[in-house]
């Protein structure tokens, strides 16, 4: 049985508590929006906005993104509209953890480096 979207929110909040990090309201809002789409029988897309995400936010987000493959979420878009404080390697790990449900990667911040671009090129070619 697929993991319900509210359960992903609970997993995230519990992970934040264990890591001593305040939950990002933007991420919880994105989960809520995905749940609303699911209830309306629309494509259930989770939009992860990396703006203002910091390295301390990484582990709780990773715990959720590694479970997306087993969840009700049908697709994930990873977006970045302004400068990102998240380490490029962390961003890459998050994107890789989404795996087959990754739909769109739109990053405006070019500071992620060559390894990130290599992975992005390899992903596009598949």
From TrEMBL:
GO cellular component, one term: Cul4-RING E3 ubiquitin ligase complex
A family per Pfam: DHU1_N
GO-annotated biological processes: cellular response to UV-B
Highest taxon of the lineage: Eukaryota
UniProt domain DWD hypersensitive to UV-B 1 N-terminal: residue ranges: 5-117
Record InterPro entries: DHU1 (IPR046377), DHU1_N (IPR048514)
Stored PANTHER family: BNAC09G30780D PROTEIN, PROTEIN DWD HYPERSENSITIVE TO UV-B 1
Record-given protein name: DWD hypersensitive to UV-B 1 N-terminal domain-containing protein
Naturally occurring in which organism (per UniProt): Gossypium barbadense (Sea Island cotton)
């Amino acid at each position: 049985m697929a993991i319900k979207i509210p359960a992903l929110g609970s997993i995230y909040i519990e992970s934040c508590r264990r890591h001593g990090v305040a939950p990002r309201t933007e991420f919880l809002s994105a989960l809520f929006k995905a749940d609303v789409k699911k209830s309306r029988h629309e494509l259930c897309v989770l939009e992860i906005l990396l703006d203002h995400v910091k390295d301390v936010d990484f582990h709780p987000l990773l715990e959720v993104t590694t479970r997306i493959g087993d969840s009700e979420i049908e697709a994930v878009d990873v977006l970045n509209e302004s400068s990102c404080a998240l380490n490029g390697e962390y961003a890459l790990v998050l994107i890789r953890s989404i795996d087959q449900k990754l739909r769109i990667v739109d990053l405006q911040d070019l500071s992620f480096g060559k390894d990130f671009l290599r992975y992005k090129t390899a992903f596009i070619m598949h």
